[in-house]
TrEMBL record, chains A, B:
<keyword id="KW-0418">Kinase</keyword>
<comment type="pathway">
    <text>Amino-acid biosynthesis; L-proline biosynthesis; L-glutamate 5-semialdehyde from L-glutamate: step 1/2.</text>
</comment>
<dbReference type="InterPro" id="IPR016163">
    <property type="entry name" value="Ald_DH_C"/>
</dbReference>
<dbReference type="InterPro" id="IPR001057">
    <property type="entry name" value="Glu/AcGlu_kinase"/>
</dbReference>
<protein>
    <recommendedName>
        <fullName>Delta-1-pyrroline-5-carboxylate synthase</fullName>
        <ecNumber>2.7.2.11</ecNumber>
        <ecNumber>1.2.1.41</ecNumber>
    </recommendedName>
</protein>
<comment type="similarity">
    <text>In the C-terminal section; belongs to the gamma-glutamyl phosphate reductase family.</text>
</comment>
<dbReference type="InterPro" id="IPR005766">
    <property type="entry name" value="P5_carboxy_syn"/>
</dbReference>
<dbReference type="InterPro" id="IPR036393">
    <property type="entry name" value="AceGlu_kinase-like_sf"/>
</dbReference>
<dbReference type="InterPro" id="IPR005715">
    <property type="entry name" value="Glu_5kinase/COase_Synthase"/>
</dbReference>
<keyword id="KW-0511">Multifunctional enzyme</keyword>
<keyword id="KW-0808">Transferase</keyword>
<dbReference type="InterPro" id="IPR016161">
    <property type="entry name" value="Ald_DH/histidinol_DH"/>
</dbReference>
<dbReference type="InterPro" id="IPR016162">
    <property type="entry name" value="Ald_DH_N"/>
</dbReference>
<keyword id="KW-0067">ATP-binding</keyword>
<keyword id="KW-0641">Proline biosynthesis</keyword>
<dbReference type="InterPro" id="IPR041744">
    <property type="entry name" value="G5K_ProBA"/>
</dbReference>
<keyword id="KW-0547">Nucleotide-binding</keyword>
Length: 755, 755
């Protein structure tokens, strides 16, 4: 229909007839969708009354999908509950009028209501429910139609055909059919009577009704919403119950159904049978929770977008393990990796380094495939980042060999040793963090680098690379596993399928200990937003300042400002704001800086104070917090070093800030006061980098204030554990009645060699 | 009315006539509430169509409050927009029937609609909007009544009185009046004509209508929802614009209104005038966003619960600064604290220690006040925790003096020094984290301890103590500031008002760097859940294991198990699960352990394997992950040390795990393999504690895997920064064309003295 806002019609390709979708990512293509709403979804309220907000947001999502050009159908429950509500209300109203005539305030509130009969409730509820659906869908310019069905409507061939053609006609007219069982004439079915095989399914609840209907109408997708998250491998609430992401028909025996299912009529077993029946009929099925307030507002659209919500039923079992299984395998093998000798981890890295040279041809050939696929689809800078060469591989191999050497002393290093008491010794030692998830874009050379870092630090690793480099990543990962296998820990590093959504990975908070995004600051920001409960190592912003003091040397100021801004303007450690001491305005040093910036074609934006000093000012900045990431910068005037520090604290991102001055005392004050990860005097901001700092390999740059800050080397991938060795010591021994005393003597440890 | 679920009637005390509420926390008492819905709330859709889900959840909240016994009124907008919608729909329907007779599919979708006249839309929309409200409220057994008003209804005395008595009658009948301007007969008002003083307010938009109505009806609270977050001190979007939490009439001149307000008719300035008018009439006002999907579902109930949502208008300006101002003051003074000499920080701590002894009487007298107030209201254990004594103060003072001595080397310690190149030297030094928020319950002795830790580490500190200790906390905080003032940094430690909600504090993510909860594991869990984007240092669970190996010594096993479980069962480092090697079953060591547990009255729960070995088994555990925190534990049987490790990895919380064995190789394997913060051999789990580890003061115990792990001392309150000193160095100097080379020579640093 005519009225739609901001939702272009999705191009939906026809689905191969009779085949359900193999992957969640294909659900985007679903054209005809049946949404089944369990009565818990329609009528169970949270605090009081019915779940109106929930119903409205479900209508909202169905409307969005309908207005994308899909054909939506709703199978609804809840008429009985609605009827109860309505009849109570009517009775109360009629009573209240009578009572109000001869009673005071508040008596209404305590009035009791008669017990209501279910069939009458169904009749009364049906119209109320439909009125509500209609009122809601009208707001989206969508018409609805009411269809009441009974079991017989599917068994009688004539009735079945009538139903079928009516529904098709409605869909053709862009009308959303709302289907319910005719509870007023048909009694609620007997629970626990089995479904009759796969070819016939008896309609005894809305699960079987919706499955029957979806197959009859050749729907692409059936979304069954109730108050359970989906299918669990054991009864929910038991110690090891896990939500199943994808369920395959063959897996049925691996499921233990709880005896007391909360889902009532039909229960989970019946839901699964109905889902499998629909699947065999060619309709994909997702069972999900429609009552969880955290997801209700987008559960249906999320499912259609292919996100991991509830349980997806698929006929096609993929060859590899799921990402959850990969994580488990990685953690397990990672523990073995961590228990190897440092030399053994070094051997693995050296072996990987050798393989990069030996298997050069295979790698470059895989890379050429990616390049060919990318040509014309990606921009030239992205293609450059994608491409490998013999030279790149050689320098990679050299870097890895260096890392192998320097990593000897990372895991198991003793940081501290204390004699707590006689024969009670405490050690704090370095251990790996656990399972890392590294998400990287484009550059496939990231893969062996990051893998070597994980190996050196004894961490398990999940790698999620970009689709554009999938062939190159595959061979590089294969070589990494080959190297790992020399010590039997091939599984410690896993390549995650390109089909997995980054957002879903960021939710695996019990399985992944640290996420490291390697790529643009947009990537980092997105991941920081998506990560729920998992720490993210990275910085999303670099608003770096260079402050040129009144006592700066002309040459140093020019050199440092030029290098900070122009060496690589897209880097996070490039200067964004130049702070100039007021006394320098209209002096040679100021003019020379401006000339240099003009020569280098840097576009200048004026801060408010700077603008006020100029007659013809450059454009004034919109915000003093802008990260230009290009040959652009802001210039602002400050009164003093202290004023510069205040400006940096107010507008900076605590990444890297620089002072240029010949006055050592001013420099030291600045270095002491500025509260950023890196603070420099008379040196370019571009030095803020793991390699330039001499940390060996760089894990990333962090602007977080805890754990690791600034450029992060191998140490950022380590944590510590406390090991205490006693001889049956108890704390009671140290109480007033006990016979022991704490000594707390520091025992010297070898000087820490931080790499 | 009769039907309500789980919402007991709130007891609402009468409000002193004509006075608005002084604090948000008093809003819970609001009985008569006007909710004003701007047209953006009622009709502006997100993806397509109208904002139905939003409207429904607003109805839901109004219904909840109504069913708590409050008297709710709604002032609604949106009739015109609704009418547009409805008329379009009707026109399309009538066209579509005709077209369907002689056209193919999809043509409907491209049909255009005529331009509609606003007044007609209003008439058509009014009934649709009311029908929707009625359908929605009916679901909560709540009746609604429609009231259309015009400007004249308030000016004509007779009409005004009629309106007043009608509304009162409706409220008395427990009916929710829904009020709108009669747009069909009255033209939309002229914008930008001023409100007429404070005694008269002309009704020209729904802001002024709702203000007029709220005062007329002596409402306690007016909630004005639109699509802005509230009132900002500068136009939203500018660099420093801050949402004002509480606005006082006198503050009006401190606000800069943007020239281009997005809120259209009336704009923000008019909203504020209307709010101030209502306030002066005795009605409290909150302006908030009703369109933000993150809060829509609970914006109204949150406001009534006193949470920090939008801008609260109050006549009573509190004496002290807001918590945001306190945080700013703390950060500022904290930077000075960090720049002091270590000896100066030590002096402050010593001075605090002395004050605790000197001002003993004042402290104990304040403590007695708290105790008296608590008697009968708190349980005896809580009262014990609340009470201070001379002995407690003395031992506190001694602890503080020790900390003053040991803290000398915390801030500014050089961890690493590198000669990057000639005359380019890099240092990594320890610096404070920034602003800490410590939330503690009951025990007021926590305050000086935590304060001393913050002073020693140079951090700014916000303290949030429990209401039950407010008098004691006040005097202790006063003494802390007295001690800080000897070096001019009194503001570095702030005591947050007991009125502030913990949940609101946990949202100050740009202002607070680390949250440390000190108290029950429930407190920690709640805070971990509430903290958005701020790291939390703490552990919420301690499921600790003791594994008794087949080669364990009888005596050590008995001692370690007894101490681990019985020394202090409520502690997080107490044993929850005892793992026994299979070979020990029915041996003397096993029998003696069981006897000891029986003697100590420890209730035993059997793990599934243990239960299978027994004929008369104790109750089987519900979950192997239970933290009993009492004289209860689970016993489970394992086949080997490796099996014990696997059990611990599967069911443990990575806090503290212990092996008892005489076989050193088995012990070392266990210590190496178990991936917990603390792993012990032949020593009680109760040693996992900062004091027993010899860390001096304990900040807490962390089961996080990054930053700090296990018992955390002062080091956990420090981070690092990188300081680079050059002579105009640029990275270009080191390029292939440059004339410099990286040296990366480690320069020895004094052996790190970890405290």
């Amino acid at each position: 229909m005519g009225w739609r806002r901001g939702s272009p019609w999705t191009v939906l390709l026809p689905r191969p007839h009779g085949k359900s979708f193999a992957h969640r990512s294909e659900l985007k293509q679903a054209k005809r969708i049946v949404v089944k709403l369990g009565s818990a979804v329609v009528t169970r309220g949270d605090e009081c009354g019915l779940a109106l907000g929930r119903l409205a947001s479900i209508v909202e999502q169905v409307a969005v999908l309908q207005n994308q050009g899909r054909e939506m159908m709703i199978v609804t429950s809840g008429a009985v509950a609605f009827g109860k509500q309505r009849l109570r209300h009517e009775i109360l109203l009629s009573q209240s009028v009578r009572q109000a005539l001869h009673s005071g305030q508040n008596q209404l509130k305590d009035m009791s209501v008669p017990v209501l009969e279910a069939r009458a409730c169904a009749a009364a509820g049906q119209s109320g429910l439909m009125a509500l659906y209609e009122a809601m869908f009208t707001q989206y310019s969508i018409c609805t139609a009411q269809i009441l069905v009974t079991n017989l409507d599917f068994h009688d061939e004539q009735k079945r055909r009538n139903l079928n053609s009516t529904l098709h006609e409605l869909l053709r007219m862009n009308i959303v059919p709302i289907i319910n069982t005719n509870d007023a004439v048909v009694p609620p079915p007997v629970p626990n009577s089995d479904l009759q095989g796969v070819n016939v399914i008896s309609i005894k609840d809305n699960d079987s009704l919706s499955a029957r209907l979806a197959v009859e109408m050749k729907a692409d997708l059936l979304i069954a919403l109730s108050d359970v998250q989906g299918l669990y491998d054991s009864p929910p609430g038991t110690d090891d119950a896990k939500l199943i992401d994808i369920f395959y028909p063959g897996d049925q025996q691996s499921i233990t159904f709880g005896t007391k299912s909360r889902v009532g009529l039909g229960g989970m077993e019946a839901k699964v049978k109905a889902a499998l029946w629909a699947l065999q009929g060619g309709t994909s099925v997702v069972i999900a929770n429609g009552t969880d307030p955290k997801v209700t507002g987008h559960v249906i659209t999320d499912i259609v977008e292919g996100k991991k919500v509830g349980t997806f039923f698929s006929e096609v079992k993929p060859a590899g393990p799921t990402v959850e299984q990969q994580t488990e395998m990685a953690r397990h093998a990672g523990r073995t990796l961590a228990s190897l000798l440092p030399e053994q981890r070094g051997e693995i890295i050296c072996s990987l380094s050798e393989l990069l040279t030996e298997k050069k041809d295979e790698i470059l050939s895989a890379n050429r495939k990616d390049m060919e696929l990318a040509t014309g689809r990606l921009s030239q800078p992205l293609i450059n980042r994608l491409s490998l060469s013999t030279a790149k591989l050689n320098s990679l191999a050299i870097g890895l060999r260096q890392l192998a050497v320097s990593s000897g002393n990372s895991v198991g290093r003793v940081l501290r040793r204390t004699r707590v008491a006689n024969n009670l010794e405490l050690e704090q030692i370095t251990v790996p963090i656990g399972v890392l998830l590294v998400i990287f874009e484009s550059r496939p050379d990231c893969l062996p680098q990051v893998s070597a870092l994980a190996i050196a630090s004894g961490n398990a690793l999940l790698l999620k690379g970009g689709k554009e480099a999938s062939n190159t990543n595959k061979i590089l990962h294969h070589l990494t596993q080959e190297a790992l296998s020399i010590h039997g820990v091939a599984d410690a590093i896993q390549l995650v399928s390109t089909r997995e959504e980054v957002e879903d990975l960021c939710k695996l908070d019990k399985m992944i200990d640290l996420i490291i995004p390697r790529g643009s600051s947009e990537l980092v920001r997105d991941i920081q937003r998506a990560a729920k409960g998992i720490p993210v190592l990275g910085h999303s912003e670099g608003v770096c300042h260079v402050y040129v003091d009144s006592e700066a040397s002309i040459d140093k100021a020019i050199d440092v400002v030029k290098d900070s801004k122009c060496d690589y303007p897209a880097a996070c450690n490039a200067m964004e704001t130049l702070l100039i001491h007021r006394d320098l305005l209209r002096t040679p040093i100021f003019d020379q800086i401006i000339d240099m910036l003009r020569t280098e074609q840097v576009k200048i934006h004026a801060g408010p104070r700077f603008a006020s000093y100029l007659t013809f000012s450059p454009s004034e900045v919109k915000s003093l917090r802008t990260e230009y990431g290009d040959l652009e910068c802001c210039i602002e005037v400050v009164d003093s070093m202290q004023d510069a520090v205040d400006h940096i604290h107010k507008y900076g991102s605590s990444h890297t800030d620089v002072i240029v001055t010949e006055n050592e005392e001013t420099a030291e004050q600045f270095l002491q006061q500025v509260d950023s990860a890196c603070v420099f005097s008379n040196a370019s901001s571009r030095f803020a980098d793991g390699y330039r700092f001499g940390l060996g390999a760089e894990v990333g740059i962090s602007t977080a204030r805890i754990h690791a800050r600034g450029p992060v080397g191998l140490d950022g991938l380590l944590t510590t554990k406390w090991v205490l060795r006693g001889e049956g010591h108890t704390v009671a021994d140290f109480s007033e009645q006990g016979n022991m005393k704490y000594l707390h003597e520091n025992i010297p440890v070898p000087q820490g060699n931080f790499n």
